[in-house]
Amino acid sequence: MNGLLAILIKEFAHIRREPMTLLFALVVPVLQLTIFGYGINMSIEDIATVVHDLDGRQESRAFLDALENTNTLHIVERVADAAAFDAAIASGRAKVGVRIPPDFSDRLLRGQQATVQVLIDGSNSNVATSALNAVNLLGLNQSLRRAKLYAESIQKAAARDPQGRLALPIEVRARLLYNPELDSAHFFVPALVGIILQNVTLFLTSFAIVRERELGTLEQLFVTPVGRGALLLGKLIPYALLGFIETLVVLLVMVFAFSVPIHGDLVLLILLSVLFLVTALGMGLLVSTVARSQLEAVQVSFILLLPSILLSGFVFPRETMPTPIYILSYLIPVSYFLEILRGVILRAATLRDLMPHVLGMSACCVAILALSVVRFRKQLD
């Protein structure tokens, strides 16, 4: 550890002379969390819908009012002919088209089945799935409502509730836990914290060492009396401290700007965040042993970051991925950290609950750090 203090002083002085480093470490994460947290919304609402109502009477108007009240569909256009109806969908102005036949009310009043045609633009699978679920649920609810009215008129029912009123034979009482409002920010923002921490820490570490190599000062450090271990720790500790401060800042933004409370143990969350920071520092060190310039460091970092974002469960559930991809996701450290963040923040999970993820992240940390240190020491030698 000979010369560790000198390397630390040199590195902190370097950070102080470069305000962009502090900006990148402390301000950029807050901006990213704020912009992405507000901008990314997984709830799909107000899907543009065109209506071709050939009936136009009370029954069809009631059906369309119920459709608008789902909040998933939003009527943006009412057309009078089939050509305009098809054109609205083909042009993309509407993602859903609802056509009500001219005998809609007559058939309902006669007690016959009435058919409503719904055309859904399938080019966006998420939007199409939400629209399909919304119209299927609407049809079911409207059918049950009419069936109940009919049963009341003839005083017959398949079942009755304890008060003797008409009721469905089977009642399913579902209850949402942890996020009863289904607010997408509660699911997305904690994961965003993990992704931002990884990205900023990785870039900071890889740039710090590659920059020394570009300026030719790394070779000068090799000939100083500073020990190899002290040199390595002296380069990493300042960025570990910056990463820790950055962690506290983004957690504060998450709690106070997005109203996402931390239900679990805050100390446990911070300790596991530190473990992840060490892992990210190791990744940055590994990048610095591969890249010869800051441009190469950016390119190599993006190679690592892209699978981290797409395969970690940040956007898409890992359980729905094909088996080979799902197995591959176990090699990505942030996959475990996202499970830990969501577990502690949303479900108040304990260390025992999170043990599989903690062990997985620890294994990744040891493997990445060992490989990084071996490669870095090999370059020093």
Fold and architecture overview:
By secondary structure, the chain is α/β, with parallel strands linked by helices. The chain is built from 14 helices and 6 strands. Strands 2-1-3-4 form a 4-stranded mixed sheet, with helices on both faces. α3 links the parallel β1 and β2. α2 runs parallel beside α9, α7 runs parallel beside α10 and α10 crosses α11. The longest helix is centred in the middle third of the chain and has 32 residues. It is elongated and about 95 Å long. The model has no long low-confidence stretch (mean pLDDT 83).
Total DSSP helices: 14
Task: Give the N-terminus to C-terminus distance in angstroms.
Answer: 17 Å
Order of helices and strands: HHEHEHEHEHEEHHHHHHHH
**Rg on CA atoms, Å:** 29 Å
Average pLDDT rating: 83
Strand arrangement in the largest pleated sheet: 2-1-3-4
Portion of residues in helices?
55-70%
Main sheet properties:
4 strands, mixed
- Shape verdict: elongated
As residue ranges, the low-confidence spans are none
Task: Give the strand content.
Answer: 5-15%
Number of strands: 6
Query: Structural class, from helix and strand content?
Result: alpha/beta
Oligomeric state of shown chains: single chain
Index terms:
14 helices, elongated, 66% helix, two-stranded antiparallel ribbon
Summarize the structure in short.
This protein has helices at residues 4-17, 19-39, 58-69, 82-90, 104-109, 125-154, 184-215, 217-222, 228-257, 266-290, 294-311, 323-328, 333-347, 355-380, and strands spanning 47-53, 73-78, 96-100, 117-120, 159-160, 166-167. With 381 residues, it is of the alpha/beta class. The strands form 2 sheets. The chain has a 4-stranded mixed β-sheet with strand order 2-1-3-4, with helices on both faces. It has a two-stranded antiparallel sheet with strand order 5-6.
